[in-house]
Design goal:
Alpha-Beta Plaits, single chain, 3 helices, alpha+beta, 21% helix, Dimeric_a/b-barrel, YCII, YCII-related domain-containing protein, two-stranded antiparallel sheet, 110 residues
């Protein structure tokens, strides 16, 4: 089953002084195991553009679609047997401590 994992900042990161996991190692491990299909870091929200159509009129604005302290900074597409495995993969990601990770299955199995 494929999952989109949104990698987000968090205004309340973990305060555990233990070293965070290494992102390069996490990527290598899950790429090699076939659990990570693709992923990338996103440009800052200052580079975002929001597009809407209202009453037939195109509305384009600078910035993200919401104003919040927590923002999406990257993503990974995971291919896991089930949600439990996806949670274990997310748990080992460095941003599980410094931010937050949202797992969402693809609606049609992608």
């Amino acid at each position: 089953m494929k999952y989109m994992m949104f990698v987000c900042t968090d205004s309340e990161p973990d305060t555990d002084p233990a070293p965070e996991p290494d992102i390069e190692r996490w990527v290598s491990e899950h790429d090699a195991a076939g659990r990570r299909v693709r992923g990338d870091q996103l440009a800052p929200t200052s580079a975002a553009t929001t597009v809407r159509v209202r009453n037939g009129e195109l509305l384009v604005s600078d910035g993200p679609f919401t104003e919040t302290k927590e923002v999406i900074v990257g993503y990974d597409i995971l291919d896991c047997a089930d949600l439990d495995e996806a949670i274990e993969v997310a748990r080992a990601h460095p941003m599980a401590r410094g931010g937050r990770l949202e797992l969402r299955p693809f609606a049609y199995g992608a």
